[in-house]
Amino acid sequence: MSGDYVALPSDWVRVSCTVPLPPREVWSALTEPDRVAQWLGSLNARMTPGHNVVLDFGDGDFFDVVVHDVRAEDRIAFEWRFLGVGPASEVRWSLSTEDGHSTVTVDDSCPGRPPSETAQLRAGWLDFLNRLATHLTTGESARYRWREVIDGGADLPAGTWRPLRDGSITDWLPVAAESGKPRWFFVVDSDGPRRFAIRDWKLIPDKSLTFAVAVPQATAVTRCEVLATETEQGSRLAISHTGWSELGLGDLQARGLRHRFAAAWTAALALAEDHAHRTARSGPR
């Protein structure tokens, strides 16, 4: 495994891995849905140019994917959005061969991506390629079970609406107040509505929001952080929700809860994105 990195823009990631296998075997692991599921995630369809597919990780995380180009045993080019919101990243998987070995190179670019996010993404791609190499050399599944962190973000246009203000929180975040204080975080999905108690609410207007969400019968709380940062085009709203492996619940129950909360955060980010665009078009409320 190698992290082949050359002089690239700060918002660009390039990593690669080499395995002692012919291109045909590696190409199958990159394109066949049942093989991709062994090291990355579940595709709902084959990667076909001009088509939209979903890459689902089974824990609430997913990418909406638009496939641009597929050249057999050569390259796959696509764009994707994590949780279906936020900026799209342009991704290319390239395949080359030399002396009976095949090399997979990943290029991932997104203009304006901050350096800290680029570093995290590079580490993530190195991990995925390690899993690909393990699957290819052993024939076994190398896919991770589920992620500890729910995270994501949305890019908001410049305008008068600010998501991290007392009067704007409920425009996008599924919370309700009692006696003037935020009290409940709501999750509504196919299993029906459910509310979870909020603790330790701390809002710094236009900058950050932190709070804890209590899960019944759990021995610990989960913790949420929302950050708003200025960008050239407007602002970036980023969320993080942690603590799922520390609840003291069974693995299946903890994973199920994470899945439900990931869906709630996905919907919240989409609402924030939609609200920001609508208010930017219509002007001050």
The whole-number mean of residue pLDDT values reads 92
Strand adjacency order, main sheet: 1-7-6-5-4-3-2
CATH fold field value of the largest domain: Alpha-D-Glucose-1,6-Bisphosphate, Chain A, domain 4
Question: What is the CATH architecture annotation of the largest domain?
Answer: 2-Layer Sandwich
The N- and C-terminal alpha carbons lie at a distance of 54 Å
What structural category do the secondary elements indicate? alpha+beta
Instruction: Classify the helix fraction into a percent range.
Output: 25-40%
Report the strand count: 14
How much beta, percentage-wise?
35-45%
Count of DSSP helices?
Answer: 5
Give the helices and strands as they follow along the chain. EHHEEEEEEHEHEEEEEEH
Provide an overview of this structure.
- The chain is an alpha+beta fold.
- The protein folds into two domains: 12-138, Alpha-D-Glucose-1,6-Bisphosphate, Chain A, domain 4, CATH 3.30.530; 150-282, Alpha-D-Glucose-1,6-Bisphosphate, Chain A, domain 4.
- 26% of the residues lie in helices and 39% in strands.
- The chain is built from five helices and 14 strands.
- It has helices at residues 23-31, 33-36, 115-138, 169-172, 251-282, and strands at residues 12-19, 42-43, 52-56, 62-71, 75-82, 89-98, 101-109, 150-157, 175-178, 181-189, 192-204, 208-213, 222-230, 234-242.
- Strand 9 (175-178) and strand 10 form a beta hairpin.
- The longest helix is centred in the last third of the chain and has 32 residues, at 251-282.
- It is globular, with a radius of gyration of 21 Å.
- It starts with 11 loop residues before the first strand and ends with a helix.
- The model has no long low-confidence stretch (mean pLDDT 92).
